[in-house]
């Protein structure tokens, strides 16, 4: 029996019978825009339980299910905290990472307050682990970070800013032991104001501190040697270019990801905790970056995940490596994401996405036999998913631009003269992958070819491809999108008279830049939380994070390769050229956006109206930069699709 037939049969049986598959003639825009019904799947260390978050209508709950008995153990309403991540601390306790935009007493405005909760499976009680103002600094965020667990399983090791006193006018970023059983925390290791991260050994003791001094651009690593903290690494850099991501299994070295000068790809290195000696590059490939590492709760590295339109993996343990590769072979041409596993790797949970799978979860046992667990999108059958293809075109200066295409199923047999949507990703230091992109799928459902170029400045395709975008906003990066239109038009796939551009975040800037700098190309422009004025954006970042902050330095590198000139940024700003627009514009923006302020869209609308251009705006109340609320992101999707439909008749 082939993998696809097994998949269909599994969906009909549905292991837990917790979600039904509705019978329907077509998929509505609200179903495209809805949050996945199921996500954040985790498996207990003993492999007996599976937990996941399920969102249906007004209900938002964490479910725990017995694999052996195939029955629900319990469900808990989490609508008030809306978790963004779930995993098992142990067989009896769940970790829930939460992020909310909310107000904090004594502080102005709203904050993205990430924190953590522990859920006891036996008594079904939930409790917050770190509370701002309770022995730690009030008003802080970033409290959902766990760097390890004590050997007895009683404490989570979590960093937080300490309270300010007369001796320390600035808060120190310190490591705390946080009880998983009761309301109790105590300091484990003091840090400094510049401390960024901690790494701990198998006994739960801090052995590494990472620091970054934004004012002096000093990136440091301190290691504990014979009871004393010594500096084993120091680099002066405005933007950190080395990522310290874990420890080797013997706890003698730190794992570092950085660029290999020979291949131009992100590779794996180790740094000795004894003397800072660096070994590597290791595990590097000349056709992919190392995107991330696979670790346990003590951050010991088991293997790596490589970049690409679909992920690939390498593990140090040959048996684990063979197991994961065999799983991937069961789903050819799909993206197989490693989600969770038991410590012995006998059971593995994966999420599969692609032209045949709408975010489906599978459990593989010790014999590598698959069981279908659940679907993130039970309303979608395989035939409802529009096909995802890959292409490469050459930009005008010779740079190769990898590209994803979402192809309407009804047009798959004849890709000729189609209406199209250019859909650049955000970041721009990011890249698209094969998967269920609800915007791309919803647009393809209207009959549009959706084109996602991985323009210069995208990550995942090597250092040279990424750095080629520095200082090229509105210039070569925009040329790459223009060249995409021209390439697919020249191939007869796209009707040049029926092209729109849609994007969010950086993609929103690119959409506006398309309307401003190449107005002849597009019939409509949709910018979601996009940037119209680069000078105002840079000033806002400096105000929010500090003029010498890494964020400000990073944006200066993005906008101008570090050499900021206000007149040059003005020329790269779509708002400056509002008079050039010929296509109608839809501006969608989030009221609680802390990454790109709403004023960017408001001022862009004002500039377009002043030039008597056809422009409209939609404010998403209570939404943030990333469109994480089902109701408001459906609003954004419906407005976008209807707007594009109106102008691509």
UniProtKB/TrEMBL annotation:
GO molecular function: aminopeptidase activity
Record lineage: Bacteria, Pseudomonadati, Pseudomonadota, Gammaproteobacteria, Cellvibrionales
Protein name in UniProt: Dipeptidyl aminopeptidase/acylaminoacyl peptidase
Pfam families, per the entry: Peptidase_S9
Domain Peptidase S9 prolyl oligopeptidase catalytic: 436-649
InterPro entries according to UniProt: AB_hydrolase_fold, Peptidase_S9_cat
UniProt signal peptide: 1-25
Keyword vocabulary terms for this entry: Aminopeptidase, Hydrolase, Protease, Signal
């Amino acid at each position: 029996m082939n993998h696809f037939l097994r998949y269909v049969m599994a969906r009909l049986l549905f292991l837990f019978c917790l979600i039904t598959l509705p019978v329907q003639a077509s998929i509505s825009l609200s179903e495209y825009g809805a949050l996945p019904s199921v996500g954040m799947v985790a498996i207990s260390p003993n492999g007996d339980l599976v937990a996941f978050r399920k969102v249906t209508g007004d209900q938002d709950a964490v479910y725990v299910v017995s694999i052996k008995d195939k029955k629900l153990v319990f469900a808990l309403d989490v609508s008030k905290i809306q978790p963004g991540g779930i995993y098992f601390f142990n067989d009896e306790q769940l970790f829930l990472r939460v992020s909310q935009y909310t107000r904090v007493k004594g502080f102005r405005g709203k904050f993205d307050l990430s924190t953590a909760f522990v859920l006891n499976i036996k008594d079904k009680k939930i409790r917050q682990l770190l509370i701002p103002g309770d022995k730690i600094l009030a008003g802080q965020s970033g409290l959902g970070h766990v760097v390890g667990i004590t050997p007895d399983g009683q404490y989570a090791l979590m960093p937080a800013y300490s309270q300010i006193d007369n001796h320390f006018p600035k808060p120190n970023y310190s490591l705390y032991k946080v009880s998983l059983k009761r309301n109790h925390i105590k300091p484990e290791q003091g840090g400094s104001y510049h401390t960024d991260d901690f790494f701990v050994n198998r006994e739960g003791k801090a052995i590494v501190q990472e620091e970054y001094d934004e004012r002096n651009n000093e990136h440091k690593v301190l290691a504990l040697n014979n009871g004393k903290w010594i500096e084993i690494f120091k680099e002066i850099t405005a933007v950190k270019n080395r990522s310290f991501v874990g420890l080797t299994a013997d706890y003698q070295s730190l794992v570092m990801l950085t660029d290999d000068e020979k291949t131009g790809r992100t590779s794996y290195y180790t740094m000795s905790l004894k003397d800072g000696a660096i070994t590597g590059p290791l595990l590097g490939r000349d056709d992919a970056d190392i995107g991330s590492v696979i670790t346990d709760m003590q951050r010991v590295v088991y293997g790596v995940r490589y970049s690409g339109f679909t992920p690939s993996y390498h593990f140090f343990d040959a048996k684990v490596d063979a197991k994961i590769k065999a799983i991937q072979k069961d789903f050819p041409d799909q993206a197989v994401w490693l989600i969770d596993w038991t410590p012995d790797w006998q059971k593995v949970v994966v999420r599969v996405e692609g032209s045949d799978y709408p975010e489906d979860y599978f459990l593989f046992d010790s014999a590598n036999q698959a069981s279908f667990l659940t679907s993130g999108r039970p309303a979608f059958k395989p035939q409802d998913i529009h096909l995802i293809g890959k292409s490469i075109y050459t930009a005008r200066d010779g740079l190769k631009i990898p590209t994803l295409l979402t192809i309407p199923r009804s047009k798959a047999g004849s890709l000729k003269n189609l209406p199209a949507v250019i859909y650049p990703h955000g970041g721009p230091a990011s890249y698209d992958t094969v998967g269920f992109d609800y915007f791309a799928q919803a647009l393809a459902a209207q009959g549009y070819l959706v084109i996602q170029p991985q323009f210069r400045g995208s990550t995942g395709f090597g250092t040279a491809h990424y750095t080629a975008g520095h200082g090229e906003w509105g210039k070569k990066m925009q040329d790459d999108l223009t060249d995409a239109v021209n390439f697919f038009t020249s191939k007869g796939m796209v009707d040049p008279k029926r092209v729109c551009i849609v994007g969010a975040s950086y993609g929103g800037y690119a959409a506006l830049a398309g309307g401003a700098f190449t107005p002849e190309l597009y019939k409509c422009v949709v910018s979601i939380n996009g940037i119209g004025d680069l000078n105002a954006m840079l000033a806002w970042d400096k105000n929010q994070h500090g003029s010498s902050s890494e964020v400000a330095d990073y944006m200066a590198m993005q906008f101008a390769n570090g050499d900021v000139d206000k007149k040059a940024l003005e020329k790269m700003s779509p708002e400056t050229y509002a008079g050039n627009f010929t296509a109608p514009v839809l501006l969608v923006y989030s009221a609680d956006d802390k990454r790109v302020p709403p004023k960017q869209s408001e001022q862009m609308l004002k500039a377009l109206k002043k030039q008597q251009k056809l422009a409209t705006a939609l404010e998403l109340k209570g939404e943030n930069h990333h469109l994480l609320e089902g109701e408001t992101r459906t609003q954004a999707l419906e407005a976008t699709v209807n707007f594009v439909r109106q102008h691509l008749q």
